[in-house]
Amino acid sequence: MAACSPPSKRRRKNHGEYTNEESSSQPPVVVFAHGAGAPSSSDWMIRWKDMLKNALQAIEVVTFDYPYISGGKKRAPPKAEKLVDFHKDIVKKAAAKYPEHPLILVGKSMGSRVSCMVAAEVDIAASAVICLGYPLKAMNGAVRDETLLQLEVPILFVQGSKDGLCPLDKLEAVCKKMKSINELHVIDGGDHSFKIAKKHLQTKGLSQDEAEDLAVQAVVSFVSRCLRGK
Fold first, then answer.
1. CA–CA distance from 146 to each of 76, 117, 120, 131 (Å)?
2. What CATH number has the domain spanning 2-228?
3. Is 0.90 surpassed by the pTM of this model?
4. pLDDT tens-digit map of 30-62
């Protein structure tokens, strides 16, 4: 894991402020947002939901479908900004259901962008954001870093080294400019959904499951340090 800056205090009390006053002994509640092309019921989402719930010992991992993907019809997603209010409402309901539990926001691809936008809201007290395949590069090639540079909540990027939507050199440059605590875990040979070619796995002496297990361990380590305030 490459760290752009070390984790320190654990959760935001007011905007840009973290405190260790609350005990981190309570298991977290996780709100997990899907990517642009597949709903929360996709095999990928279900598998990662189960892995995160078990690894983080979460009291609940809340998944949901954005309105554009509901009803079984596949439509193109709107701009990420237009999904913030819906996503934020889901987050606020989860936080209200488990008020004594730390709040962790997780997103796949587009869902990670929207999770960051939600985490930047003043009335959302997330302890950490986990981005699984952050889509840093827009279709026109522009680097979409505006939200990341504003964010003050600790953030972990889990990225495949062969992810065309997030060149690692560009992400590392953004990390250096960010004011929030941030870390990067690279899945060597992984694409945008972390799939690794068989030849690459053979060269590394790993299986797909082992590579993803290492990523999940990185998530657990990051979240644990955020909650401990270390």
1. 23, 10, 11, 15
2. 3.40.50.1820
3. no
4. 999 999 989 999 999 999 999 999 999 999 999
